[in-house]
Amino acid sequence: MIATAWRVAGVGFSLLVILSAILLAGADPQVTSFPGTGAGDAFWTYDLRTDDLTVLLLAVVGVVSACVQVYSIGYLHERAASYTALVTLFTAAMVTVVVSDSLFLLLIGWEVMGACSYLLISHYWERRDARSGAVKAFLITRLADVAFLFGIFVLGLGYGTFRISELGSSPISPAALTTGTVLLLVGVVGKSAQVPLQTWLPDAMPGPSPVSALIHAATMVAAGVFLIARLYDVFVAAGTTLTVLAVIACVTMLFAALCAMAAVEVKRVLAWSTVSQLAIMFAGLSLGTADGRHAALFHLVTHAAFKGLLFLCAGVLLHQVGSAAFVVLRRHTRLGASRKAMPVTFGTMTIGLAALAGVPGFAGFFSKDAVVEAAWHQARDGSAVGWVVLVSVCLTAALTAFYCVRLWLWVFFRTPALAGAVDAFEDDAPMADVDDPATAKLRDAPWVMLAPLILLALGAIVLGYADGLHLNWVVAALTTVLAALGALPAYSLWRRGADPRPAVVEREFGVDAAYGKAVVVPVRWFAKLAVLGDRDVIGTYVRAAGRTGTLASQGFRLLQTGNVQTYLTFAVAGVVALAILAGVIGA
After folding, report:
1. Handedness of CA 265, 268, 270, 272 (dihedral sign)
2. How high is the pLDDT of residue 443?
3. Torsions phi, psi of 146, nearest 5?
């Protein structure tokens, strides 16, 4: 009964967010202030802001959250009340970030999202990988958020205000501007899992699939893109920071795409895909132009639709098969069983992968082309950043098509060549979150789970036409050719039943292991050193002081004989000793 009440409340809150976006659409931008606090010159109020960007993100958050809440009714049944409460709080935290016109109010929503993500990723707390993934996500994002907090203070004190709408209205030293924006960028890199703080997001996959959909599509990782878009004028004024952002984005999109090409578990492929697609959005923002900002936000909206769809489809596979590792799924698809038994899941996942790969006519095609076109305009004007972004996004488009086609074929189709070729995956196919490990007869999910898939699939198609269908045919032809060039090798490998993965890519370039040696091992040694210092140095003095007091009390205890004659003897001896001492001093 309690779980049902929470589910109704969760769906109701998501619908309220959607209604708010509808009511605010077309309204004049407005800032509403509430009483604040502070000390000395550092004073801030809690302000809310409504404008076009607010409406856009409220719509995205509300729709994806509503789909996740409805989908979860059929997907998850254990600890449902706490799960739904946390998802609702998670959504409310993202809404707080979106509507904030105060850096500190935004920080509150930012940090609450981090806490909720930790609790939701570890929902299956009885599993070791869920616990470790949650801790890893929490520690990495909290580390980045320390810099984020300092960045808020640097910009707020530098501009003399903590209102986002007033930042840039007064002069600030270039050093303070660059320092503040770089510190904020560190927080964004951590929250959006960009290089070098990218390792937490793929390891967060043991959480429930609806949580993954919410994190990857509408909250948490999308918050970084929103923040830079919200403070865009400030970041544009800091040219050095935008250059740093461009370098990070270009490295991240290629690195993550290569990792996705080697992953053998559906959710891990999608996780690396999210890292790569977010980098494309950051690359658009790094151009420092209105077209770049528009393209990045356009891609953010379309990505929310098809990535939320893909994670929910992965959840159906987990729900029905018990795993989304390629090797396990292939055992059910030798004769195309999953494709025939789950036609809605197959159809909607095909739409999602087509949108992700940039197939013409789907939403991802239009939004990715918008980023490419914005980069081309900058490159044509002689911008080095424009050229780097253009080349990186084009290469990433080809790599994206490769891993999308690879995933689609290996999961849903029977390899024409060797029937046992899939066994090559046996040794490295990790189990994903298991709702029901029994491999019962395949069938499509309940309609309460399929309805959100159909809605998001429609979004993955029609959202591409919501931008007025502005299409540069040269760019469209280029990206289509690149997608084909990426898809053909994947198809060829599948036809031959081969899936070679270079060891360095398979291990995701060994970054996690390197971080373990460079960070985890030294921290453990310092922790052991601190324990030794506390136990063997400070503790020794404490124990010695206590032992000395104990021995002294035992010595004095021996003097307490109860014999009056002994007491008088000691008294006389004491008087004589004092007299002798007085005489010596007097002489």
Report:
1. negative
2. 79
3. -65, -45
b/e burial code for range 434-453 (CB count within 10 A of at least 16 → b) = bbeeeeeebebbeeebbbbb
Residue 300: CB atoms within 10 Å: 24
Query: Both tokens of residue 236?
Result: 């544009």
Locus of tokens 């530098």: 158
In DSSP terms, which residues pair with 32 in a beta bridge? 48
3-state secondary structure of 322: coil
The answer for 433, left when phi > 0, alpha when psi is -120 to 50, beta otherwise, is beta
Distance CA 99, CA 110 (A): 12
Residue 34 phi, psi dihedral angles, 5° rounding = -125, 160
Pairing of strands 30-39, 42-50: antiparallel
Six token digits for residue 469: 């269908």
Which residues have a Cβ under 8 Å from the Cβ of 320 and sit 6 or more positions away? 342, 440, 442, 443, 444, 445
Cis peptide before 416 (omega within 30 of 0): no
Which amino acid, residue 506? E
Q: Rounded CA gap, 455 and 307, in Å? A: 13
DSSP string, 447-478: HHHHHHHHHHHHHHHHGGGTT-----HHHHHH
> Would you say the C-alpha torsion 255, 353, 454, 337 has a positive or negative sign?
negative
The sign of the dihedral angle between the CA atoms of 411, 326, 313, 361 is negative
Please list the residues that pair with 330 across neighbouring strands: none
369-403 burial code (b ≥16 CB/10 A, e <16): bbbbbbbbbbbeeebebbebbbebbbbbbbbbbbb
Residues of the chain with pLDDT under 50: 335, 418-440
CB burial of residue 247 (10 Å; 0-12, 13-18, 19+): middle
**Strands (DSSP E) along 195-247, which ranges?**
none
Angle, helix 52-75 to helix 80-99, in steps of 10 degrees: 170
**Backbone region of residue 26 per phi and psi (left: phi > 0; alpha: psi in -120 to 50; beta: other values):** left
The pLDDT tens digits for 57-78 are: 999 999 999 999 999 998 887 8
**Distance, CA of 297 to CA of 60 (rounded, Å):** 11
Structure token pair of residue 35: 């009483």
Cα of 567 vs its chain's centroid, Å: 78
Amino acid sitting at position 217: A
Gyration radius of the chain over CA positions? 30
Q: Could you tell me the residue ranges of all domains in the chain?
A: 1-133+204-237, 238-506, 519-586
Q: Please tell me the predicted confidence (pLDDT) of residue 331.
A: 58
Does residue 103 contact residue 81 with C-beta atoms inside 8 Å? Answer: no
Would you report the helix, strand and coil content of the chain in percent, each value rounded to 5?
75, 5, 20
Tell me the whole-structure pTM to 2 decimals: 0.87
State the Cα–Cα distance between residues 481 and 173, nearest whole angstrom: 47
> What's the pLDDT score for residue 43?
63
- Residue whose tokens read 């003095």: 541
Tokens of 386: 């424009």
